[in-house]
Every structure is written in structure tokens, then in C-alpha cells.
Amino acid sequence: MTGYHRKSLLRRLNQRPDERQTSLRGQHRRRYGPEVVEALVPLWEASDRLCGKRLHALLPQLVESLEHHGHVQLEPGVRARVLTMSSATIDRLLAPVRKSSGGNGWRRPPRAYSGVRRRVQVRTFKGWDEHKDPGWLEIDLVAHCGGRLEGRFIWTLVATDIATGWSESLPVITRDGASVLAALQRLRQHLPFPLRGIDADNDPAFMNALMEQWCDAPEQGIELTRSRAYQSNDQAWVEQKNGVLIRRVVGYERLVGLEAAQLLGELYAALRLFTNLFQPSFKLKSSVREGGRIKRLHHPPRTPLQQLLRTGVLSDQEAQDLKELRKRCDPVVLLATIRSCQSRLALLISGQHTSAMAGEPLSWRTPEQEKRELEGFLQGLQALWRQSRPLQKKLKPRQGRRSRVDPFEAHAELIPHWLTAEPDVGSQELLDRLIDLDPQRYGPQHKRTLQRRIRDWRLARVEKCVASASERPETKPGTREAVLPGVN
Predict the structure, then answer these.
(1) How does strand 167-172 pair with strand 223-226?
(2) How far apart are CA 68 and CA 66, in angstroms?
């Protein structure tokens, strides 16, 4: 109400009445009155509302320019004070004007999760050199929105271990902090190693108080880090799994509802075993730059389970349990389950079978039906190689003499003659002339070949003109002889 700072107001109120009346403190220090502010505001608007430091550097040139063009006329005293004020004074005098003007450019209030983001440490793609043990995960959310983010749809939480490549996936019905934290706690129970750290992006579903409190709890002991904004390469491991595991298996269609989430849960249960137990992958060993090329050396391909066993962090009993799990799992049955879930997801997406899971359980009803489905799947595997197309070889660039007959061989001398007489003639006009001459030989299919022929001729012409000009050093620039003939 008074415009005083609270400390200044306390000093004023603590003065004695006689001192308050006779005191001139603050009045003699007031150097810039309303007339200075009135002169400063047009200058600030003319500079497109610059900040105080930039406006302070611009004021001498700006005042001179505006006075020269007749936009402002400042009194000598006001002009001197405007040019001598500091950048801090400019900001202080313009603060009420900025606050009351529309589109003032002030920073909006920080969001609720920005405080969490400021407290969480940033980890780049080079920040994993000291973490060789399993348990350090990169996590991300994949949207099954079908290209439309409005409305409700299912998300997939993907987690990848940096050291071993062990990957886990779980469907998430709603994208909020509580649902993601519940899915992450369940995902932690599936991991065969202790969870040591989580690296996430800047999504509010990860950067929130619930996630921060859960990771910082003494009984958890989990280190929470985040990537840089708009730097997806900081999470290269999980981004690669998003494409290889989720998009390649589930696709990009829109998935909505509990039935689709239940199907995704069954699909991911089989996919985690098939990927972690039976899918080997390469792991980079070293990278050396040799000139303009990078030479990369990789370890022999191993499955995530083999990578985990090689680390030696598991006890003998845990390692034995994982080996027994691998013996019990049949990769053909797992792959058949994945294909079955994919087909039912396709039915659910297409809408042909809206209640695909209403009258039939998500697993096979009887062992006979399971055997029948498995036999059909195996037969499909045996015939799959016959149905697939062979890999197309990459065409090598043509070398040596041409193997096809030149279509313009009959008029090889006529085309350069036309181009010399008319350098600006187009390819379509030349092709029309050739069609008029010999309609049986030429047609629209020769236009692209003729364009390349014209381009080569013009390039050779320019090189010849440049070479002839360089042989005449006595020619002065700007004279008539210095103009290259035939070059537009």
C-alpha cells in the first residue's frame, strides 16, 4: 500500500515525530522523477522492450536516432539523466510498467515438479562409465495412442539395465505419478538383481514428489537421475528397446481399455522371458577413431542372462535358479504365445471382435487346443522362409563404359547445337523438338535422361569459360572482356 520495503517502513515508524517532520532522508536522493520515467517508456517500447542491461547499451544510439527522426524531443536535463542511469535503475523504473503491460514476458510461475527437477542430478549418455554392476536402469514411457494424444489410452513402462541389457515392460493404464510408481514397484519384483539407480526423462510422471520420496527413503537406497531436456541420446539404451521390443512387437496402433492392458500384460510376460533368456545381443567393447572413420569392437553376442551370470553379483543359489528357469522355458512356446497375443490385439484394434476376451480366457482352454495351436505355429515356422522375400542387393555405381544404347545417338550433334544457339532452352522444349523429328524413337520416358545430358553440357560449358577467363590475368574486373561468354 505504501510502496515501502518493510525495513524502510520500520525505520520510518521508529523515528520520533520531530525527526519525522524535519528528516529529508530519501528526498534528496531521489534523482529520477516521473518525467524521467515518462521519457524512458517510449524508448523502451521503441527497443522492443529490451532488458535493462541491453537497453542501457542501446540508449545513446537510440535517443540520437529517435531525435533525428522527430519521434521524441527530450529536455536537456531529462536527456542527461536518461543517458547516465544504470541498467539496475532502468529495470527498477520500468518494473511497474512491465508488470501492468500485457505480454510483459515475465516468467510464468514454476510448475509443481520443477523443484524436483532442480534437485535431481542430470546424467548424460557418458555418465555410466563408473557403473559396471547390474541394477542401474533407464526407464521410459511408450504411448499407444495411434498418433492422437487426446483422450485416454494405454502406456508401456520400459526399463533396461545398462550393464546386462536385461529389459522389463509393464502396461500402465493412466499416466500419472502414482500409477507409474506402482508399476515400477511391481517391475522391481521381477528383476533378478537389486535395484540401485533409476535414470528417467523429464516427464512429470517421473519427476514428482512421490518418486523422489520413494527413491530417497532409507530402506530403498535408490539413486534417481534424469536426462537433459530434448536430448534423447542421453537415454540411448532404453530408447533402442522402445523400438526393438515395444514398437516391433506391439506396433503404433491405439490401445484403450482393460482388455487391451490385460493382453499386453500376457504379451510382456512371455516377451521378457524370450528376450532375456534367448535373445543374444552385441555389447560395445571399444571405439577408436581412425581418420574419418570410427572402428568399433564388440564382445561376442550374449543373452542378458549370460551377461548377468558373467558379472558374478549373484549368489550360487540365484544363479542356479535362473539356469533352471532357462531350462524350463521353451522358446517355441514363448514365441507362439507372443504371436497369439499379437493376433488377439489385432482383433481388438480392428473392432471385429469387440469382446474378444469376454467369452474366452486369455490362455488356451485345454491342452488339446494348446497342442493344436502350437503345431500350427510350428508349421508356419517351417514355411516362413519360403514366403519371405530374399534380401535385395544394393546396386553398385556404374563404372566403365555404358551398357545400354544411347537413346540420343541419332541426334548426338543436334542437341549441343541447339544448346549453343539457345543456352536457356528447357528440357521439355528440346524433348518436344526431338519427338517432332522422330516420334517413333523419342517419348516422355526420355525426359530425365535429357535433363542429365543438358546438365552435363552446361557444367562443361561453365568449366571451359572459367578456364579461359583464368588464362587472361590482364583482364580487369568490370570490363566487357571480363564477362564470361555464354554464362547467364
Answers:
(1) unpaired
(2) 5
